[in-house]
């Protein structure tokens, strides 16, 4: 038996959704560069689920389907209100809310392809509403209903802040959503596939995936990056701070990647946005500090910044609460999780690897009185 810690380098499935080849990321063969520069998040979701770009009328219809499903059942809002709002992390709230959403979907356990696509639309539409509703409720504000004429990105900011975003803000969120939408067999997507490969339902697969994304070695890193930048405080403290982390053998959040060893192709876009947005807000120090850290770690350890590194200062510049950074990632990655779940159902086989047993051999059972 072959054993690879963390399943590094193991090909666990075939997929037609996204690929990472020679540090280039593509969605269905379209480079992330083309998509980030030219596309909309809704178009990318359509692409990931249908493996083709939509025509104008297909895209309009898809947008209308999403817009029609954005509102939440009252029971989910009531549930969000029932948490201990001072301690619950928004990723935990999202994980629970998605699970509750399944209880209010009559088709939750209907497994045919058409029903699964309808559930995918509901989940993608409602995730933005859950994240923003929770973001408001915990501040004592009422959730805001989405507007049908706004894009997905604009609606996200509108439902969060109660006012329609500026073009630069909408563009930044749209691009961030595109860049995070799918990433081959990352840990949360793998989790989703493992879950539904038992022929469990989509809500279970997504709930499991949210749990996996929450961890700081995966999507949870973006919040930790901002925590680190805040702790550093000023540019001149950055290098001494990182040196101390190295001395204590601590990892630097937002740095390193299991697959990309020469650089994450998504990071440059977030870096550009961070430069632009921090300048607009008069807080270039977050960008400058991030560049210092990135350069130092590249030099010292050969580790590149990953997608989570510059997204922290981007979201901070947009005035978003730091613990909502990972829920934004989840809002985007919902598209990839759902694409992979649909693909898994399409050609399913139970996912069940083996473990190499390294425990004690041939022990004699001793009765409890004699132990
Ligand atoms: C969207 C995403 O999920 S992107 C990743 C987000 N996660 C983070 O940013 C957390 C910080 N980064 C990390 O923990 C890692 O780089 C991971 C989890 C992303 C990838 O990890 P792996 O491929 O398992 O690499 P692993 O953790 O084994 O590290 C290999 C070596 O590089 C070092 N290393 C890797 N990342 C870092 C880091 N961020 N800071 C310091 N050292 C690091 C490890 O300490 C290890 O060194 P060693 O061989 O001397 O023990
Ligand atoms: O692929 C990974 O391991 C992590 C990652 O970058 C992502 O999920 O976007």
Write up this protein.
β2 (24-27) and β3 (30-31) form a beta hairpin. The chain has 16 helices and three strands. It is mostly helical and 371 residues long. 57% of the residues lie in helices and 3% in strands. The longest helix has 25 residues, at 113-137. The mean pLDDT is 97. It has helices spanning 32-38, 41-50, 56-68, 74-81, 90-103, 113-137, 152-161, 167-180, 187-196, 202-213, 221-232, 238-247, 267-280, 284-301, 307-317, 325-346; strands spanning 18-21, 24-27, 30-31. The protein folds into two domains: 11-217 and 323-346, Citrate Synthase, domain 1, CATH 1.10.580; 221-317, Cytochrome p450-Terp, domain 2 (Orthogonal Bundle), CATH 1.10.230.10. The protein has a three-stranded antiparallel β-sheet. α2 runs parallel beside α16 and α5 (90-103) crosses α6. Bound molecules: acetyl coenzyme *A and oxaloacetate ion.
Q: Pick out the low-confidence regions.
A: none
Spatial strand order of the main sheet: 1-2-3
Associated small molecules: acetyl coenzyme *A, oxaloacetate ion
The percent of residues in helical segments reads: 55-70%
Largest sheet: 3 strands, antiparallel
- From the 3D coordinates, which CATH architecture of the largest domain would you assign? Orthogonal Bundle
Measured distance between first and last alpha carbons = 35 Å
The Cα radius of gyration reads: 21 Å
The name of the CATH topology of the largest domain is Citrate Synthase, domain 1
Q: How many individual β-strands?
A: 3
Shape: globular
- Counting structural domains, the number is 2
Helix count? 16
């Amino acid at each position: 038996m072959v054993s690879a810690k963390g399943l590094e380098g193991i090909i666990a499935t075939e997929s037609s959704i996204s690929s990472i080849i020679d540090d280039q990321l593509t969605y269905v063969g379209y480079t992330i560069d083309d998509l980030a520069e030219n596309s909309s998040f809704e178009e990318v979701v359509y692409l990931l689920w249908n493996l083709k770009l939509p025509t104008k009328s297909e895209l309009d219809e898809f947008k209308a389907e999403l817009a029609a499903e954005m509102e939440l059942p009252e029971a989910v809002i009531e549930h969000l209100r029932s948490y201990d709002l001072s301690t619950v992390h928004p990723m935990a709230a999202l994980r629970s809310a998605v699970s509750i959403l399944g209880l209010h979907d009559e088709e939750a356990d209907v497994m045919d392809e058409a029903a699964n696509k309808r559930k995918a639309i509901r989940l993608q539409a409602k995730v933005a509403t859950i994240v923003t509703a929770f973001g408001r409720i915990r501040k004592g504000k009422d959730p805001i209903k989405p507007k049908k004429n706004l894009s997905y990105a604009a609606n996200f900011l509108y439902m969060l802040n109660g006012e329609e975003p500026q073009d630069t803000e909408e563009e930044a969120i749209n691009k961030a959503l595109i860049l995070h939408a799918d990433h081959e067999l990352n840990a949360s997507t793998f989790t989703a596939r493992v879950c539904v490969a038992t022929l469990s339902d989509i809500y279970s697969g997504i709930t499991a995936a949210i749990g996996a994304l929450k961890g700081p070695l995966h999507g949870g890193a973006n919040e930790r990056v901002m925590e680190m930048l805040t702790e550093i405080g000023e540019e001149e403290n950055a290098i001494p701070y990182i040196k101390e982390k190295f001395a204590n053998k601590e990892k630097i959040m937002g740095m390193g990647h299991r697959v990309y060893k020469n650089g994450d192709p998504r990071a440059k876009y977030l870096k550009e946005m961070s430069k632009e947005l921090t300048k607009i807000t008069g807080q270039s120090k977050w960008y400058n500090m991030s560049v210092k850290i990135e350069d130092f770690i590249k030099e010292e350890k050969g580790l590149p910044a990953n997608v989570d590194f510059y997204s922290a200062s981007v979201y901070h510049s947009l005035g978003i609460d730091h613990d909502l950074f990972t829920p934004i990632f989840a809002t985007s990655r919902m598209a990839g999780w759902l694409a992979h779940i649909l693909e898994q159902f399409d050609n399913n086989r139970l996912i069940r690897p083996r473990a190499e047993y390294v425990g004690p051999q041939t022990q004699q059972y001793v009765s409890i009185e004699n132990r």
